[in-house]
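Internal tracking record. Fields below are filled automatically when a chain is submitted to the structure queue. Please do not edit lines marked as system-generated. If the sequence contains nonstandard residues, flag them in the REMARKS field before resubmitting.
Queue: standard
Priority: normal
Entity type: single polypeptide chain
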Amino acid sequence: EILSEEEEASLLQAMADIQQEIDKAASSITYPSSPLFASKDDQFYPFTIRDAKRLSPVQIPPSFHIFDYVDPTTQNQRASKAQQLWLDGYLVGMAPCSRYILLCYKRKILQVLDYLLNQTQAEYFFYMEADNELCVSMDYVRELALKHQKYFIGTGIGFSGWIMHRQFVQDFVQAYRPPHKRNNESPDPIGARLLMQKKAWTVTRQYLVSHTIQTGYG
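SYSTEM-GENERATED OUTPUT FOLLOWS
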């Protein structure tokens, strides 16, 4: 559907208003100091995000740090009104939103990435979507990241299996945060555009993560 100039201007203004809410929510997050937040590896930080509004897998390898928007008090996640963010079972703040829509998904991704940049010193991060399966050992992924020291390495499909240098995360957050025309708020095309601009796209010959639905609440 093609929008008129007036409709597009109205949409962009609405998205700018939403962006202000994102920035306000990010600035209000407090990050408590706790041994639970200390990573044993100051070079490599693997993580995933579980959302409360769709299937929320529980069979996640223990080598991942888990950011949870899942309500631990109920199995009926779709009906949950929980608006909290947990990390490895420890409450770290309030969720920026609770609706399962693309803009809310974006706000949650940015909240997690902001947390990582502010609260960790890791040089490399590895993100895998929660409904994916890691097909190799985490040691293999870590060695791949630290041995080749690339800006970015893609090991899966879409927004999953991303091995990211800290600088990529910073650049991606800066590129992803502003509103984008025609509601194109998915992380995949923003990341692809950034990598094309940087001429820094690297992928593995074989996928290291598999897209599979695992057992979970739903």
